[in-house]
Amino acid sequence: MKKILLLNGPNLNLLGQRQPEIYGRETLADVVDTCTTLARSLGLDLMALQSNREYELIDAIHAARGTVAGILVNPGAFTHTSVALLDALNAFEGPVIEVHISNIHKRESFRHHSYVSLRAEGVIAGCGVQGYELAVARLARLLG
Ligand code: CA2
Fold first, then answer.
1. Do 121 and 4 form a contact (C-beta atoms < 8 A)?
2. Sorting pLDDT into bands at 50, 70 and 90, what band is 100?
3. pLDDT band for position 126 (50/70/90)?
4. Of 75, 79, 85, 115, which is most buried, counting CB atoms within 10 Å of its CB?
5. How far is the CA of 12 from the centre of ligand 1 (A)?
6. For residue 1, how far is its CA from the centre of ligand 1 (angstroms)?
7. pLDDT digits (tens, 9 = 90+) for 22-65
8. Is 100 a catalytic residue?
9. Is the separation of the CB atoms in 53 and 78 below 8 Å?
């Protein structure tokens, strides 16, 4: 079974606990459970990591090289700041799908630019946590 990696960046551990009007009521554990089940039904083995530390996300991307077929990533606020995350993703050989729960283009102008989008095969934004399921389905299609 091909492995895929779901990465979530800073503050996404708070999903379901704060700002439900923006990020919904589901927790990150709910999202990971749903995506794991969906991935398995599509023949993929999903591993997940959330970190508030940029270097841990970068290390996870390095470790994914040669072992993981594709990456789903919600980089959180690192989306808009991290050339380092972009560089790490550029060193990964498989497809990358970027997910944002909110529609970043409908929010403050500093959220309109994404470094990660320069690398991502696809970007899903504004679909709530359903965006993660859409991203799993897209990755399965790209890897099929
Ligand atoms: O819409 C998204 O998924 C974001 O990646 C979320 C980031 C934000 O900085 C990006 O611009 C867009 C923030 C994640 C914060 O997550 C929270 C979840 C619940 C409660 C508080 C924060």
1. no
2. very high
3. very high
4. 75
5. 6
6. 31
7. 999 999 999 999 999 999 999 999 999 999 999 999 999 999 99
8. yes
9. no
Read off the tokens for 122: 């696809």
Question: Which of 8, 13, 102 has most ligand 1 atoms within 8 Å of its beta carbon, as the pocket-test mutant?
Answer: 102
Active site residue 23: yes
Q: State in Å: Cα 10 to ligand 1 middle.
A: 8
Domain positions in the chain are 2-143
Let me know: does 79 contact 100? Beta carbons within 8 Å.
yes
> Does domain 2-143 bear CATH number 3.40.50.10320?
no
Put simply, whether the predicted model's pTM sits higher than 0.85 gets the answer yes
